[in-house]
């Protein structure tokens, strides 16, 4: 199959009930979010977890890779030796990483707590698959994340990438490293970038990162690079002076997969009756949607409908996928032999809501429709490079052939974005 999930989770041993002995409830938001994220991984039928830890043996160049047949460890150093974990290692993935990752340093030994804590919660949720344990790269995390995603997408199986890490350790005077103003500043910068423009994570000032005393910055960047997604923040808190964040970074959806299947069938002149129609409930609703094609990370086509024209979402996606691939006037029609170079996403639109003015817009949360006479322009939300409301309205006007000086009616809408 491929990489179907990526998540970021913290690893404070105090969250383990046998260690916290009641103190873990000071971090209740993290406990609740851990329960939710592990539930999602179980429901996604993940077979192998690739876990990146900042507390594994690290190397200046490349990444370390545990090459044991069985990964084992316990919480003895935290006073809970009775809590031990053991998981079979996925030797197929290990061999592929050794072959295809640029620099891999094989290591042996027990699991560190950066791996033990996430796996403890996964086991509590009922998961019992295989693992691959990596040490966090100190340099070029995006390069390693991208390559890991590419490798996993070519292997059979269902994989999840779990990035383990804590944010700043300097949020409180009584925290493990005292207080530094850079601590909360760093954490807020991470949260903002995660929910708006993840590429800004790579441009945080070096001195800010160093002063914050974090241990998950590179793990997070690696996970985000492995697969493009729509990050969802499940929790953030710092009651003990350390920033704990749980985030769903990417998960696979059947909606864009259906879009790709429809375009491929059309380009290969397959009989329409051979196309296996999805029958799940999420395809049965009536919604407007946009289908977006990318090639090597660059836009290759985008066509959609603000309101539903077809009898269900499956047909709406099919219609818009064919249009995005063959009728977008900005691009030449896609050819069949280019299909394996494309990635798909689907934006499912909520109801249009007429608004009074620009103050009711947020380019990260809302898309906008501008109307003037018989002209209409639309811009989706959460687009790279569109950071202000004025930019959003200006571009929407351009798309609708409306001059910048003309007064327009404004409508807003929310979307849910789905990735392959």
Describe the structure.
This protein has 420 residues and is of the alpha+beta class. The chain folds into 2 domains: 2-251, Protocatechuate 4,5-dioxygenase, Chain B; 254-419, Glycoprotein, Type 4 Pilin. It contains 11 helices and 18 strands. It has a 6-stranded mixed sheet, with helices on both faces. A hairpin with a 6-residue loop joins strand 9 (232-237) and strand 10. Helix 3 (91-100) crosses helix 5, helix 5 (141-153) runs parallel beside helix 8 and helix 6 (182-195) crosses helix 7 (206-212). The protein is globular. The termini are close together.
List keywords for this structure.
single chain, 420 residues, alpha+beta, Protocatechuate 4,5-dioxygenase, Chain B, Glycoprotein, Type 4 Pilin, 30% helix, globular
Provide a short characterization of the protein structure.
Helix content is 30%, strand content 26%. The chain has helices spanning 17-20, 28-43, 91-100, 113-124, 141-153, 182-195, 206-212, 217-226, 254-267, 313-326, 389-400, and strands spanning 2-9, 48-53, 63-66, 70-75, 80-88, 104-107, 130-135, 158-164, 232-237, 244-251, 289-295, 298-304, 342-349, 353-355, 367-372, 375-379, 409-413, 415-419.
